[in-house]
Amino acid sequence: MKKITKQTYLDWYKDMLFWRKFEDKLASVYIQQKVRGFLHLYNGQEAILAGALHAMDLSKDKMITAYRNHVQPIGMGEDPKKVMAELYGKVTGTSKGMGGSMHIFSKEFRFYGGHGIVGGQIPLGAGLAFADKYKGSDAVTLTCFGDGAARQGSLHEAFNMAMLWKLPVIFIVENNGYAMGTSVDRTANHTDIWKLGLGYEMPCGPVDAMNPIKVAEAVDEAIQRARRGDGPTFLEMKTYRYRGHSMSDAQHYRTKDEVEEYKKIDPITQVLDVIKEKNYATEEEIDAINKEVKRMVRECEKFAEDSPYPEPQQLYDMVYEQKDYPFIS
Ligand SMILES: Cc1ncc(C[n+]2csc(CCOP(=O)(O)OP(=O)(O)O)c2C)c(N)n1
Ligand SMILES: [Mg+2]
Closest ligand to 68 CA? Predict the structure, then answer.
């Protein structure tokens, strides 16, 4: 793995702060009804992405996840202006405004969605890894899903095949404690989700996912295993989301104190504390990063606001048509 240096900390701070503020902006424009439909935010979980990206080779590795998916493509290299435009439903968006919040996709940067069916992406991630192995590439696919998705049957089928065929895939459960309003301990008799890997003899374990270093180390070990041809790993990222499940969530299932407890170990604050302790940046330099992040968010917002909506005709551009389809007269 690349060394974790002063620059890594500064990059982590800037990136995670940008993702946080980008999504805070989305929350505020959602209330103004400029962004519609569902909106699931990643606030609190950023260390998973920051740490994973540090360990990945972004020239070939792939990622697939669920609907909490706005910042991952940005981390992989996609233009954040295009991601925000997609959320606004504008033609300049990553899917020409036709995907929206739950369906960000960037083939160019190997980000494969953006999936609304809970657990649906688990076998798809195994399939991406199968394609790489079949073609003789040593790329690795990170397949991310929530604690709720870990209870889906598709996980077991994917785990079994991934182990049988030693696929280059890392299964990552982002355990943020809740599936909508249902806490992990109400969905199964055991709460160590990583232990699901044991039944398949898949290397597995828990990770402190409020800290990007711990994530980077765990993902690096898993990536090395996959690249050598030794198959999959299952990691349980112990994390937390600060906001509700989606925007309309009264959050009766948890206390404000619980949220505040997690904010004490916030990943951005943890990284900033190290920067300050080790004198990696002066107060002025930190302030300059904060200002630059604000400017970047404003730039995304302006781009999305100024972009046009798609023409109605676009609806027919992406419909699959087979002229000789046999069953329709
Ligand atoms: C197959 C399926 N069942 C139910 C739903 C409704 N649903 C949407 S999100 C969600 C909770 C999933 O929680 P989790 O996997 O923990 O992800 P998180 O939202 O915490 O990131 C449910 C049940 C769905 N989208 N798909
Ligand atoms: Mg969850």
Answer: 1
